[in-house]
Amino acid sequence: MRQIIAGVYTGDKSKAKSKYLVNVFDFDLNDRAMLTTVTQIKPELSNAIAHDIAANGKAIAEEIDAQYQQELVGDVSKLILVSSLANVPNALLGLTLQEIIGDLCEPCRDIAGLKRALDEFTARAWYLEHNKEGKLLFKNVKNMIAELHSLVESYDNEAVRTTTLKAFLMDKFKPTIGDCYQNLLIFPAIDEIILSADKVSLILFEPYAGTGLHPSLERFYNDAIYKNRVMFLSGSRDTMNRLYDAAKQLKAIERIIANMRDEKVMEDNQQYQLAQDIRIKKITAILSAAQQTFSTLYYPMGDSIRSSDFNMQFKDNNYNGEEQVKNLLKEKQKFSSNPIDDILRRKCEERLFTRKEMRWSEIKDRAATETNWTWINPGTLDALLTDCKQKDLWREHGDRVEKGPFEKEPTSVRVDVKGENEETNKVSIKLHPCFGDKIYYEIGAPATTSSLRVENPNNFETAELKVSFLCVDSTSGHPTGKPMEWKRNISIKHKAREKADGKYMILESQPGVSIKYTTDGSDPKNNGGTYDGEFKIPINTAFVQVIAEHDGAFYDSHPIPIEKGTEVSLIIDKAKLLVLSHLFRVVDTSETYNQLALLKKYAQIVKDVRMTLYKKDDSGRNAGWIDLTLSDNIETNVEQIENAINNLKNSFVADSRVNIELEWHITMFKNGQSFMDFANDRGNSLSEFKQGEINQE
Questions:
Q1: Strand bridging mode 183-186 / 201-204
Q2: Alpha carbon 249 to chain centroid distance?
Q3: Percentage of the chain exceeding pLDDT 90
Q4: Which has fewest Cβ within 10 Å: 53, 136, 290, 692?
Q5: Does residue 238 or residue 18 have the better pLDDT?
């Protein structure tokens, strides 16, 4: 202490006049005598003094004080040194932050920057350690900071560029959402850059000494086909070394932390926690260096590649590069996330869809090559195509797309058969005018506007076999199409009956239709006799072959099996698929659902189905009806029938009482046994079915 007091009063820069108190740290370690005195107390701290505390301006504490133009860190380091000099067993070594603050306090002393300065000193000193109690002290061995420095010195730029720095930048700029760009390349070689028509690539490239885009990248861009599928992020060369240094330090501290984990160091260990704190600071440092390095975004626009200042903005030390690239491109009107609308359609037609008809693949390729096309979310072009097709603004023909306006479609008529009245021999049909509002009909000649007009298109009845219809548009100018000839479905009905002298056959078809038949199995078209009334079936006839003829055309050719004897039992193969052609009809709601339950249990497919929903008023009288008929060309299952009934009821008569009727004509069973079980559950005798109604071929 005598030497400390003597030093206060010695020299040209004596502190005696400016100090109110003499502190334990008021000594000059650059004074040889004082340095000798201190090192004699604990010689093993000589390296700590020389590197961290005092070395004629070259020690860490002196460098920090010179940077901030104060003596705060120097005093703190000497204070910690004094607390580390004890060299007896079980000595109390080191100081806490609170103790350091208390020991530093004196009149007129400003310690506002102590925490910042001490953190920097802790991050750079080689011999400063934290003990288990969290106290700072100097030791005679290098600490983690020294190890960090040693590792940093062992790394070269290429080592961190391809590992730590690349992984760090990949994490910060990875396309998580992928709407603005979908591919990311970090420091690639030119021959590693491959552009595709369906992905935008962001390329982070090492800056170079000149101005503007790197010449190699500029040559690559000029030679590229998909010019509208790439952008470059680069900046100033003079900041790249800072980025390399920050990456080296991050790589080093992560290596130290990994070694600690391998050595099973506990997470509450002071050194482990210090390492984690240093890692966070190094991440901040590399972000700061990256912010200054990658400061310019180059993107295609118009006839050239343009550049814009890119300012990396952090939120709580977090950084989302994808979001900031997207926001900048939105500001420069290079990227749009707007929904599909007429503005997008018109832009597409002006810049990509430039001809009346083009291949869709060509349009998408143009989006990748035309630099005046704004980037949009992946899939938006395909969604635009779907939207425009739905609105009939565009039309697709195979792999080609045609854009409107289009010539108006010619009118036409669609015919749906609702049912046939066997008593009146009339067919009820529903007529749908396509692109028109009036329908005319003619019998025996093509319909014209001079023909009779259809008054009720929803229920047009006729007993004719052929009717010509013509649709006309009197409102919006659709051209009149050609007349449409509707032909009635010509069919042959038969009935066999027993007489005293044998079995007879009765055939029936629509008026004006002639029927030809044979009983020897030959083709009735060429060899058949013309039916003019019931005829006796020869005793050995297995089946009668029939065909209908009208206006030189033939219809409904089929065989009619002939049952032998008066009591004929059905021949059914229980294992084979069975198709039953037998009309079933139920006329109330509960029975309809009962029959559907049986069909669901036994049947695979039903055809020739009719569903009718009768709306009932409060008095139980019919107040309208809904009719849905499926022809025998449409296969359906019971679930589909139930869904159709429920949809009709919920859509049109949800709040009304209805009676549901159901009929079907063709039922397919997976085997004969299922048919027999179905008949048994319905309470049918097999004698009620005819062999001719069963097909197991």
A1: parallel
A2: 40
A3: 46
A4: 692
A5: 238
| DSSP states of 177-244 | S-SS--EEEES--GGG---BTTB-EEEE----SSSSS-HHHHHHHHH-S-GGGEEEEEE-GGGHHHHH
Q: Is 318 exposed, middle or buried (0-12, 13-18, 19+ CB in 10 A)?
A: exposed
Instruction: Please state, in angstroms and rounded to a whole number, the distance separating the CA atoms of residues 316 and 336.
Output: 28
Structure tokens at 328: 């900048």
| pLDDT, tens digit, 9 for 90 and up, residues 639-649 | 999 999 999 99
- Cα–Cα distance between 325 and 33 in angstroms, integer? 62
Q: Kindly give the pairing relationship between strand 657-669 and strand 578-586.
A: antiparallel
Evaluate if pTM is beyond 0.85. Answer: no
Tokens for 301? 């626009």
Q: Which residues of 352-377 are buried (b: 16+ CB within 10 A; e: fewer)?
A: bbeeeebebeebebbbbbebebbbbb
**Contact indicator for 318, 268 with CB cutoff of 8 Å:** no
Between CA 684 and CA 674 the distance in angstroms is 14
pLDDT for 131 equals: 82
Q: What would the mean pLDDT of 160-165 be, rounded to a whole number?
A: 88
Output the CA torsion 204→205→207→210 (10° steps). -120
Q: What does the alpha-carbon distance between residue 281 and residue 275 come to, in Å, rounded to a whole number?
A: 10
- Cα within 13 Å of Cα(621), Cβ side: 2
Whole-angstrom CA distances from 22 to 82, 94, 97, 471 are 14, 20, 21, 114
For residues 237, 242, 246, 251, the Cα torsion angle rounded to the nearest 10 degrees is 60
Residues 157-164: contacts with CB under 8 Å, at least 24 apart: 157/244, 159/251, 160/244, 160/247, 160/248, 160/251, 161/187, 161/206, 161/244, 161/247, 162/187, 163/251, 164/247, 164/248, 164/250, 164/251, 164/254
Per-residue confidence (pLDDT) for residue 476, from 0 to 100: 75
What CA–CA distance (Å, rounded) separates 534 from 502? 12
Question: Is the distance from CB of 416 to CB of 429 less than 8 angstroms?
Answer: yes
Cis status of the peptide bond prior to 188, with omega within 30 of 0? no
Asked if residue 385 has pLDDT above 90, the reply is yes
Q: Is residue 566 scored above 60 in pLDDT? A: no
Q: Phi then psi for 628, rounded to 5 degrees?
A: -125, 120
Model confidence pLDDT, tens digit, residues 19-67: 666 777 778 888 888 888 888 888 888 888 888 899 998 998 999 888 8
As a whole number of angstroms, the longest Cα–Cα distance in the chain is: 156
- Answer whether 469's CB lies under 8 Å from 399's CB: no
- Strands (E) located in 538-621: 543-550, 553-561, 578-586, 603-616
Strand partners, 630: 609
